[in-house]
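Quick one, tokens below:
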């Protein structure tokens, strides 16, 4: 029988705009679907993310890499993901609170 609440690994590549990053992470944390892991890939940003990392310690996986663009950042996120499903969120985007619940329901229904 298929797990009805599989873990979703949410991968967020980041370069600049930490205020937007905070909003993006919050939109994931506010999802009605709760079986998630959030992986933030810092793609060589020079912004100080000390406070961000402190605020979200234990809620996200934070990985720094040298700048290479969003594709390699997403690929690194996939390598580090432990979820059955992968979801991508750009660091300057937001999700509606039922986005993952609806997507997982469709994937579970349609196999």
């Amino acid at each position: 029988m298929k797990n009805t609440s599989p873990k979703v690994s949410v991968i967020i590549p980041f370069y600049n705009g930490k205020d937007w990053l905070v909003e993006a992470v919050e939109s994931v944390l506010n999802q009605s679907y709760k079986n998630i892991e959030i992986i933030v890939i810092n793609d060589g940003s020079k912004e100080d993310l000390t406070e961000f990392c402190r605020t979200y310690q234990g809620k996200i996986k934070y990985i720094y890499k040298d700048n290479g663009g969003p594709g390699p950042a997403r690929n690194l996120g996939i390598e580090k993901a432990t979820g059955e499903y992968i979801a991508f969120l750009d660091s300057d985007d937001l999700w509606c609170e039922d986005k993952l619940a609806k997507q997982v329901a469709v994937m579970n229904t349609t196999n």
